[in-house]
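Workshop exercise sheet. Pairs work together: one partner reads the sequence aloud, the other fills in the structure field after running the prediction. Swap roles for the next sheet.
Pair: D.N. / O.F.
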Amino acid sequence: MTATLLRRFPLLIIVLAQLFGTSLWFSVNGVGHSLSRDLGLSETGLGHLTLAVQTGFIAGTLLIATTGLADRFRASRLFAVSSLAGALANAGFVLVADHLPLALTLRLLTGLCLAGIYPLGMKLVIGWTPKHTGAALAWLVGMLTLGTALPHLLRGITIGLPWEWPLLGASLLALIGGGLIRRLGDGPHLPPSSGSARLTEGLAALGEGRFRAVAGGYFGHCWELYALWTLVPFLVAREVARLDASLAWVPWLSFGIIALGLCGCVGGGELSRRLGSLWVARWALIVSGLICLAYPLMTWLPPWLLLGLLALWGLSVIADSPQFSALAAASAPRERVGSTLAVMNTVGFALTIPAISLTTSLWSLQGAWVVWWLLPGPLLGLWAMRRLTEQQASPVIDAERRQD
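Structure field:
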């Protein structure tokens, strides 16, 4: 495929590459049941592997924020190199899966590489589609969600084959995504480099009330999101067992539940044009929080009803993410937007670590009741946003309307 042809549809290429690259994120989770059966991996062990990816991602974003790598090198080149390195680290897991220290190291390296895929995808969007950044951001986060679900689909397709196949499939997809971006290149509208971001400046922005309210909502969202995505296969397996159905349904249903988040992101983006980003973010937190509260109390209901409730949860739990990004960009101090957003994302992803660790370590003891440990996320997020009004968020709404 020629570069000229790719540049006719830049947003499509970027979101596809994002989808393929982020399939590395939960690639091991997609084969979690197979690893448990073949290697004796426990829920706690799977949680540690997931935590390693999160830790690597946080370290990578901090590295980018403090060194200004994203400004010193072409975004397309960093994306391609990160995709290649991530694909190799993910494929290497196949060779060391039964040796936990090496497996954790490779998952840490995979997370480090993801920091050069997900954030750089945002910069590529700005460079290619500056007039439609709001809508493109919804698609980009949606593709992150679909990429998270993709390993479960790969496991479903290869259910009769060794567990190594879907892992290698995710690496192949990442290579394809990196190749597409390398051919596409950087867009003509990238803003000029502002030098290295300063974390102290980003932290200072938390002292400003409006940004602190938005960041608080985002932090609560992060506490719930990745821990839920980690728990989905466990919750699905519980209902599949109650149905006396084949465990082959677990990866397919897990994929469907997480992948519905794409619809939540895109639908939330459309609603935000009429009702505002704050309205969408607040109601997405309310819905996901209510489901989190109700789920353990409803485990006596028929399994198909609980699977439907999980589907609604998967739809709502990510719908607020693009809107928090839009609100944060509008409320951050103009002179230090980059460092401010870097700090917000770093803190948010750091909060996923205790949430994942807590829920996976307690699953064997508490079962479905473990989801109540996620409830502080939406509750504290809504509390932080309690004084934020639509009038305060009007710059975001006005900017979106001007783009349209």
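Discussion prompt: Residues 16 and 177 are 7 Å apart (CA to CA). What would you look at next?
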